[in-house]
Every structure is written in C-alpha cells, then in structure tokens.
Amino acid sequence: MKTVSRRQVLGASAALALPAFVRAQGKEIKLGQTMPYSGPASAYGTIGRLHQAYFKMINDAGGVNGHRINLISLDDGYSPPRAVEQVRRLVEQEQVLALFQTLGTPSNTAIHKYVNAKKVPHLFVATGATKWNDPKNYPWTFGFNLSYQTEGEIYARYLLKEKPAAKIAILYQNDDYGKDVLEGVKAVLKGPNAKMIVAQATYEVTDPTVDSQILSLKASGADTFINITTPKFAAQAVRAAFDTGWKPLHLLNNVGASVGSVLTPAGLDKSVGLVTVQYYKDATDPQWKDDPAMLEWRAFMGRHYREGNVDDATNIYAYITAQTMVQVLKQCGNDLSTDNIKRQAENLKNFRLGLLLPGITMNTGPADHAPISQAQLSKFTGKQWQLFGEVLGGAS
C-alpha cells in the first residue's frame, strides 16, 4: 500500500502531480502524535490507545474516502525535550502528513515554533492553553479543549455570583497550563475582588505528592479551593483535602475531573460536592444511559477497546477528538494536501457530535482555531457528575 506522506504532498508539482496520486483509492493517510504513555501524566495514555482503536474501526469499514488512516503514536513521557525528539522523528523520518492530538501544554509549547516553521498541520492539540488559538502567528496549530482561561473565568464568575465573600486558595501546576487557568480566574477577580484570593501554591510534575501544598492552603483559612491539577495530582489533592479535615467549596478543573482515573482512586466519598465544568457527556451520568450517542460509544468500547475504562471520561474525550479528525479528513475529499487539511480544519461550521452536551457545537475559521468555546457547570454527587445552570462561555 502506498502512503500519502507530507513529503509527497509538498514535493509534488502541485497542479500537475498532486491529482495523479490523490485521486487513486486505497492510499494511507499517515498521522503522527506524541502521548505520555509513561511519566507523571500517563493516565492520559488512554487517549492515544483509543485513537488507535477508533481509526482501526474506520479502516476496517473502508477508511475515509477510501483512504486508510495510519496513526503513529509515540511516547514522550510528558517531557518537552522528548516530545521535540519524537516530533522531529514523526516529521522528518516518518514524514507524517499531519500531527493530531499531541498532548500537554509543556510538550506542545516545545514543538510549537518548529511545526509551524515546517508547515505541518498541528491539529486539535490535547491541551486548552489559549495560545493554540493564534492563527496569525501560528497558522498551522489548532486547539481543541475548552480554553483554560475560559474555564478559569467560568469558575470565578460562578463564585462572584454564588459565594461573593469567598476566601479562595488556589493550587496550580507550575507551567503554562496551570498559569493559563489562573489567568482566567484573575481576569474576573480583579480590582476589589482580587482580595478574595488569600493563598496560592504551585507544584511541579516531578513532585511526588502535593500533600504539603494542601496543608499550607488549608492553613490560610480559605473556605474555597480552586484545584488546577492533572489526574495524578488531582486525585492526591482531593484525598488530602478530605483527610486533613479541610472542607472547602472545591472547584476541580476539567482535565482532572474523571470519575474513573481521578475520583475513584481519590475516594468517591471524598469527592462529594466537587464542582467542575463539562462540555461533553459523562458516562457515569444516568441521564445519558439510553442516549443514542452514549450507546454507540459503549458499543465501540465493548467491541474495539475492551481494555479501556468506561468510567474514565478521558475515553469519551478521545472518541470525540477522533470523530473530529475523521470529519476533517472527510471534508478533504481526495485533496490530501497539507493546505487543504488546514483549510478544512478551519471549516467546521456548527459541527455537532452526539457526545457533546446539548447546545454545544464546534466552530472554526481562518481567524478562529478553537473549536470548543462553551461549557456547563457540574457537581459530583458521590456517584456521578450532575449538570446545573446554563451553558456558559468566557467573560469576554
């Protein structure tokens, strides 16, 4: 089987050579990604494994427009230097046509300039940093997740409305991801409201635990806790807060709010009352039990990814992102040039997937590389997340 690689597409004398090979059926679309299959963020490795299973299902059904998808997924251990090494391999040796869902703010920051200089489509990165939506300076990069800043703004607006006298303590990962959520919080809690924040603490991804940070934040007298952490540390923080007898209003960011990979290890009884934001359906929520899209996802998990945890919301996220990638490839037709892949990634118009929450659609354009811009607040009951309030966007 011949592979449609980036080198072939760019090397073809566009108008004459390109149609000769893209019209032919049965070609292979080579995509690349890096994932933390090892290291402190290894809970996210299920995303890449699900992507592989989903694309295999698509290939077994005939592929996309007759083309098979070959996803080369490499481990970067959540290490920026290793991500650079692996992405260079994908681009220069494997000659992938596009990158898809490279995970992590630190890792994507390390490859951001490189992939744009190489004009490699850098699609739907698995991070919500605001800087992925900068088509003027980085035209080949596309975000996917709800913007971290928007998420922070939603939490702050909620507190201003529901708990205006809150004394807030904040724990955040000491990198662009953690600082981005924090910036969103502070964009709303400014002026006189800035004094609502009484304590802040950071952690490094190499830290063994965040127990000392929790003790410090508790000692501040805060009655509200904004927890900006990835799964390993989110589970530690939820458990430590409970075990030390600290009972604040606990807002947990979306990337650390999975029932399967975070709340269950932390203790479901210790997670009651947590508040987060969601933009896609949660498999543990009984209201979606007979939802057609949820039933379709469960069938996929049972047939194609049996080792995956159906209580891990990350697996729904991974499914949605894979569906979105397939949609872009469908829109490409037989023009699998990098320019057309970029153009179609900029052409999602009110794109609705069944596993997104009602009222949430994806939209992109040449000046907007952020497909998701809305979410809804949700509270954990001890068994599942329960949505409340309206679909919200950022403060701006």
How would you summarize what this structure contains?
By secondary structure, this protein is α/β, with parallel strands linked by helices. The chain has helices at 6-11, 14-22, 45-60, 80-93, 105-117, 148-162, 176-188, 211-219, 231-243, 259-266, 292-304, 313-332, 338-345, and strands at 3-4, 28-35, 68-75, 98-100, 122-123, 168-173, 197-203, 224-228, 249-252, 275-278, 375-380, 385-392.
Tell me about this structure.
- This protein has 396 residues and is an alpha/beta fold.
- It has 2 domains: 3-146 and 290-365, Response regulator (Rossmann fold), CATH 3.40.50.2300; 148-278 and 376-392, Rossmann fold (3-Layer(aba) Sandwich).
- It is 40% helix and 16% strand.
- The strands form 3 sheets. Strands 1, 2, 3, 4 and 5 form a 5-stranded parallel β-sheet that branches. Strands 7-6-8-9 form a 4-stranded parallel β-sheet, sandwiched between helices. The chain has a 3-stranded antiparallel β-sheet with strand order 10-11-12, covered by helices on one side.
- α7 (176-188) links the parallel β6 and β7 (197-203).
- The protein is globular and about 60 Å long.
